[in-house]
């Protein structure tokens, strides 16, 4: 299981890095990247090919060299001139005709329309042929092609790298005889307890060569600010017998406001019998300020 998690961590990091490299490349050098890959993604912005290709689908197009023949009734992606603006469309290619100048025109047609498009599409305008599509992924693709999308991918990649570094340090600690035991339990008080609303959660225990460090998060969900929160940490064995206990200030004079949380840690001498821990709040000061 541990090896599987390591592999998946590396795979996810490499995958995000590859996606980031692709979109950065497409942002700055779209033609060069597409020519190298031989394929290119496009987003369907209209319903002209529904229901075969829904609006906002992500279409994969195979680039076709100009000397390669295209079969009639194929779906193609091509450049078109719409009111002086260069746009990219994905329609059916039906047949070829000669215009008044004797040039070969590729006649295209939208889905469900009984006449050809008005575009004078030449062979050099055709980008490639349709391979397949993923419904509704076009919106995601457009976002990832934007500056904000690339920044989002970069942020995710940085977080994955940081997570990988932390995992490697924890693994190194285990190799040195240390180990981390994650409890991930939440300690709440009963409804009649005056300290109801003080929550201790996400606790874990770092077992080192000569010592043990208990860590976690304390959350203030009471109706007042609290200071000098004193807690008795009871360390127990597997059966729940108390082996050691330590009074500990999880919150000091700095205080903990409403709905705030704080990390805490407590270090004791190593005892291999210790398996679990319990918490008992001894005292705390409350205030409205």
Summarize the SSE layout with pairings.
Elements: H1 2-28, H2 30-37, E1 39-43, E2 58-63, E3 74-82, E4 85-98, E5 104-109, E6 126-134, H3 138-145, H4 147-175, E7 179-182, E8 198-207, E9 211-220, E10 225-236, E11 242-251, E12 261-269, E13 276-287
Antiparallel strand pairs: 1-2, 2-6, 3-4, 3-6, 4-5, 7-8, 8-9, 9-12, 10-11, 10-13
Helix pairs in contact: 1-2, 1-4, 3-4
Number of domains: 2
Specify the helix fraction band. Answer: 10-25%
Gross morphology is: elongated
The overall strand count is 13
In the predicted model, the low-confidence regions spanning at least 5 consecutive residues are 188-192
For the biggest β-sheet, the strand order reads: 1-2-6-3-4-5
Rg for CA atoms: 32 Å
N-C termini distance:
49 Å
What do we call the CATH topology of the largest domain? Immunoglobulin-like
**CATH architecture annotation of the largest domain:** Sandwich
Q: Structural class, from secondary structure content?
A: alpha+beta
Given this structure, which CATH class of the largest domain is correct? Mainly Beta
Arithmetic mean of pLDDT: 83
Number of helices: 4
Give the biggest sheet. Answer: 6 strands, antiparallel
CATH superfamily of the largest domain: Lipoprotein YajI-like
User: Strand fraction band?
Assistant: 35-45%
**Element string (H = helix, E = strand):** HHEEEEEEHHEEEEEEE
Transmembrane segments: 7-29, 143-162
GO biological process, one term: signal peptide processing
GO molecular function: serine-type endopeptidase activity
Organism: Copranaerobaculum intestinale
């Amino acid at each position: 299981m541990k090896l599987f998690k390591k592999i998946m961590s590396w795979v996810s990091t490499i995958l995000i890095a590859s996606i980031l490299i692709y979109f950065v490349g497409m942002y700055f050098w779209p033609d060069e990247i597409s020519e190298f890959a031989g394929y290119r993604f496009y987003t369907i912005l209209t319903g002209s090919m529904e229901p075969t290709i829904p609006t906002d689908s992500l279409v994969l197009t195979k680039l076709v060299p100009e000397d390669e023949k295209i079969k009639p009734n194929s779906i193609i992606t091509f450049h078109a001139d719409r009111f002086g603006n260069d746009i990219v469309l994905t329609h059916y290619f039906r047949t070829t005709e000669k215009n008044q100048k004797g040039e070969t025109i590729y006649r295209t047609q939208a889905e469900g329309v009984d006449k050809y498009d008005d575009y004078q599409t030449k062979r050099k305008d055709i980008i490639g042929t349709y391979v397949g599509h993923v419904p509704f992924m076009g919106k995601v693709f457009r976002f990832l092609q934007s500056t904000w999308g690339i920044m989002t991918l970069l942020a995710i990649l940085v977080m994955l790298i940081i997570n990988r570094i932390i995992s490697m340090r924890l693994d190194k600690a285990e190799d040195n005889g240390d180990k981390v035991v994650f409890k991930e339990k939440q300690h709440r008080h009963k409804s009649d307890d005056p300290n109801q609303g003080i929550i201790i959660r996400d606790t874990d225990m770092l077992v080192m060569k000569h010592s043990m460090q208990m860590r976690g998060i304390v959350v203030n969900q009471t109706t007042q600010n609290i200071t000098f929160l004193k807690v008795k940490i009871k360390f127990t064995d597997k059966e729940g017998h108390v082996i050691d206990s330590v009074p500990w200030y999880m919150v000091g004079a700095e205080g903990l406001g409403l709905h705030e949380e704080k990390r805490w840690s407590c270090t004791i001498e190593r005892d291999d019998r210790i398996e679990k821990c319990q918490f008992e709040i001894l005292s705390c000061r409350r205030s409205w300020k």
